[in-house]
Fold each of these.
Amino acid sequence: MTPLLSAHGITVRYGSLAALDGVDLRIMPGQRHALIGPNGAGKTTLLDVLGGRTRAGGGRVLLAGRDVTRLGPAARARRGIGRIHQRPAVWSTLTVRENVLVAALPRAVRPGRWHPSARRRAAARTADALLARVGLAGIAGVPAGHLAHGQRRQVEIAMGLAGRPRLLLLDEPAAGLSAVEVGWLTEFLRTLPRAVAVLLVEHRLDLVYALCDTVTVLRDGRTLATGTPAQIRASGPVREAYAEGVA
Ligand SMILES: Nc1ncnc2c1ncn2[C@@H]1O[C@H](COP(=O)(O)OP(=O)(O)OP(=O)(O)O)[C@@H](O)[C@H]1O
């Protein structure tokens, strides 16, 4: 089976620092893949390279076998890579619904449905369905800037899904959430349709092990190990490198 995403020899340098040094990564369709490692390991940098926000100095990124190395974030989003940022990236002055609507518009085009009003209607249906799914329908008219952090995270997740991604890149989605909100997030991601593959950067290993079938450990810009959660838990070098306790 062709991998949904494969990255080969990804290298990013900042001066003399190699943030990423020849990293390979393969994600199969529908896979739940976690990226863990100590602070500064290169996790966010790798998400930035895969999402097109950072141009790698070396290496290639293929999406379903097609080379997307030179494409920027918008072009990659159109090809099915969605991104959830460490700090929720929402438009504060737009309402919750408008935020999701804006995210849904670029993909709300089907053959024969090119007319702008048809496109807006399709995007509105997508947005309303997603708002119901993430539990924000009741506050759809509230400006996103008025929301608490956890609700902004929900808006961003709806925005990420509005682009109908085949791969969702999530950068520490549980950061700053309450225990109840983490519970909601875990259940939401667990029940996400397998049409969407997930690459999750997360320090909370309980969340990683609850959601992911494959784990890659980065350290100092290099891949230390890739395996199932059980393999990663049992790996001596990984336990040493990831001092928070992989067991
Ligand atoms: N724009 C930049 N300029 C210079 N150095 C950078 C830049 N972005 C990242 N780095 C460095 O690259 C390395 C990898 O950073 P990155 O944020 O990818 O790590 P991380 O694994 O996501 O860490 P954390 O878990 O703390 O978020 C770090 O040493 C960081 O300081």
Note: The beta strands are 5-14, 17-27, 32-36, 58-63, 66-67, 81-84, 167-171, 197-201, 214-219, 222-227.
Amino acid sequence: MANNSSIGIEWAERFETLLDNPGEEPAAIAPDAPDLLTPQEMGAADRLAVASGVRSSALMERAGEAVAAVAESMLPPGGRVAVLAGPGNNGGDGFVAARLLTERGYRVAVFLIGDRDSLKGDASLMARAWKGPIEAPGRDLAHGAGLIIDALFGAGLDRPIEGAAAAAIEAANESRVPILAVDLPSGVDGASGAILGQAILATETVTFFRRKPGHLLMPGRVLAGRLTLADIGHDLSILHDIGPMAFHNSPTLWLDGLPRPQLDGHKYDRGHALVVSGPITGTGAARLAARAALRIGAGLVTVASPPDAIVANAAQLTAIMVMRMYEADGLAEILADHRKNAVVIGPALGVGDGAIAMVSAALDSDAATVVDADGLTSFAATPDSLFMRIKGRGAPVVLTPHEGEFSRLFPDLGILSSKLDRAREAAMRSGAVVVLKGPDTVVAAPDGIATVADNAPADLATAGAGDVLAGMIGGLMAQQMPAFEAATAGVWLHGAAAAHVGRGLISEDLPEALPAVLSALAGP
Ligand SMILES: NC(=O)C1=CN([C@@H]2O[C@H](COP(=O)(O)OP(=O)(O)OC[C@H]3O[C@@H](n4cnc5c(N)ncnc54)[C@H](OP(=O)(O)O)[C@@H]3O)[C@@H](O)[C@H]2O)[C@@H](O)CC1
Ligand SMILES: Nc1ncnc2c1ncn2[C@@H]1O[C@H](COP(=O)(O)OP(=O)(O)O)[C@@H](O)[C@H]1O
Ligand SMILES: [K+]
């Protein structure tokens, strides 16, 4: 199907290459390793590592070593450390770090939730190797400490934190002492980034082998602070067996597929994007989207304008063309010209039957289609009719809702705590690539492959930013970039453009920042 994504497949192929040419990989873990593993997948990675001959206690020793190394960078020589250890293997990592830091001259106090005799397996082993005292945490657990190591709960957290552990988290947060979290800030669900009961607000977090979705999804991303990814001895080949379905949105994933102008190329080779304008009271959104489509490389861009808005549009456009459009039939006529191979519809379109008819006309065409804003809201009462049209066509569709628009189209998915799951369900149900926007924008394809972005500065929460994103994705699809890749690249480039502009950003700045961002990506 046209919407299917190739990122997962391409990345898997790249691993094959890395495995065949190990010399080409500078370290076991590339710093931009994009795979995200859920806690369950990470558990499987640990089991696979053990099955391949790595001792689980060796994994824990290296995990504790990685924690100790970051702790040292956060402490003055001989500084005081409070280690909070939990009842599972996360606590085991804490005991290793406590031992190593003591050996290196730091003054370490260990506070355990539960008792040492209840610890099992490697955690029990590491607790026995700790020769110092073990205390029960009280309100003053951080007293005199220069650093708290949070080793209460990691990948094994499976219910809301209460009681003594919740009180310890509260005391740690209130102490204002910097906190280094082991694997995850305790209380953060590694799959969703959601808080289960109570959570540590970490200064830094050390995680192992691969990041988890909860390190990137809100609020987990903020609670984790600065993230270090440590190699503790997993072989890369493990990823083949696991087959990750979620990826960190970084250029590593899509840069090879980003359209580039060719020396022997022609503007007609770079596609023709059509952006549908709203009525006279709402024409700016379409112009923002159109400008973004042109800046991102579409060869030609046309704004299809209702007759009452044609003067407003024409007066403010130069390189972008304007065409008069008489409602849905007019749009269908314009799109009958197959050279117009991508259409962006929805920004400031107005909500109602007229908008439904126009979106339907766009979906009846052969053009790759981005449906945004009012184009989505108009289907709040009849979402299935939108999904049926999407599934019934050959060309790809990208839906770009923010959380409000999303909840109108998929009201029952609000119960899912994971933004990743919400976007995936929506993609599966609608047959479209879904871009669920926000500070942690998720792009999901109907086959379950998804990306999570973390590069959007808060400045992007400004009027019209979404219109620009829709135009960028449409502009990439006009250049034949597949829908999932176009959406993923569009989201990253949108964030990068905002970061390039910095403070004072308004949406008009975003298309203008694209040349710098694209040039930097293209290299010297
Ligand atoms: N596996 C490996 O090889 C490696 C793993 N590594 C490390 O192991 C960590 C995962 O370890 P894990 O699976 O033992 O889980 P962990 O996060 O310690 O917590 C589970 C414990 O907490 C309990 N519990 C859960 N929720 C609770 C709650 N709300 N309130 C109270 N209790 C709760 C639950 O017990 P339960 O009561 O459910 O029986 C269980 O005892 C991982 O994050 C990484 O740091 C590294 O060393 C590298 C090698
Ligand atoms: N707090 C935030 N941090 C970073 N990016 C954000 C934040 N809030 C929103 N965004 C991004 O800003 C854009 C806003 O889009 P949208 O809500 O559609 O606004 P508009 O309708 O005004 O264009 C989206 O790309 C979204 O991902
Ligand atoms: K932790």
Note: The first helix runs from residue 7 to 20.
